[in-house]
Amino acid sequence: MMMCFLVMFFLGNMIFVSKHKHLLIVLLSLEFIVLSIYLMMVFYFMMLNYNMYMLMVFLVFSVCEGALGLSILVSMIRTYGNDYFQSYNLLW
C-alpha cells in the first residue's frame, strides 16, 4: 500500500520536472503531489492510531496553496493571454 503512494509521489515529481511549459500542468502536478502526501499521512496516522488533527491543518494549507496557484494562473492569463512560460520575459 505504501509503495502505491510512493509511486504516486514520484510520478507527480516526474511530471513536475518534465512538463514545465504550461503553468496549468505544473499546478496540477503539484496538487497530485499534495494528494499523494495526504494519502501517505492518512495511512501512516491510521497505522499508528494517531490523532487526525494534523491532517486538517495539512488540508487547509494545501487548499491555500491551490487557491494561490489558481489566482497566479488567472492573473497570468489576463496579462499575457496564455500560460506558456516562454511567452513572456521574467526580467521585464
Give a concise summary.
One of its GO terms (molecular function) is NADH dehydrogenase (ubiquinone) activity. This protein has 92 residues and is mainly α.
Describe this structure in words.
This protein has one domain: Helix Hairpins. It has three helices and no strands. The protein starts with a helix and ends in a 12-residue tail after the last helix. The model has no long low-confidence stretch (mean pLDDT 86). The longest helix has 28 residues, at 53-80. It is mainly alpha-helical.
β-sheet strand percentage: under 5%
**Average pLDDT across residues?**
86
The figure for the number of domains is: 1
Could you estimate the helical fraction of the residues in percent? over 70%
Largest beta sheet, briefly?
none
Order of helices and strands: HHH
Q: How far apart are the first and last residues' alpha carbons, in Å? A: 48 Å
Total beta strands: 0
GO molecular function, one term: NADH dehydrogenase (ubiquinone) activity
Main location: membrane
InterPro entries: NUOK/Mnh_C1-like
Keywords: Membrane, Mitochondrion, NAD, Translocase, Transmembrane, Transmembrane helix
Break the fold down into its secondary structure elements and pairings.
Layout: H1 2-18, H2 23-48, H3 53-80
Notable features of this structure?
membrane; translocase; 92 residues; Helix Hairpins; NAD; mainly alpha; 0% strand; mitochondrion; 3 helices; transmembrane
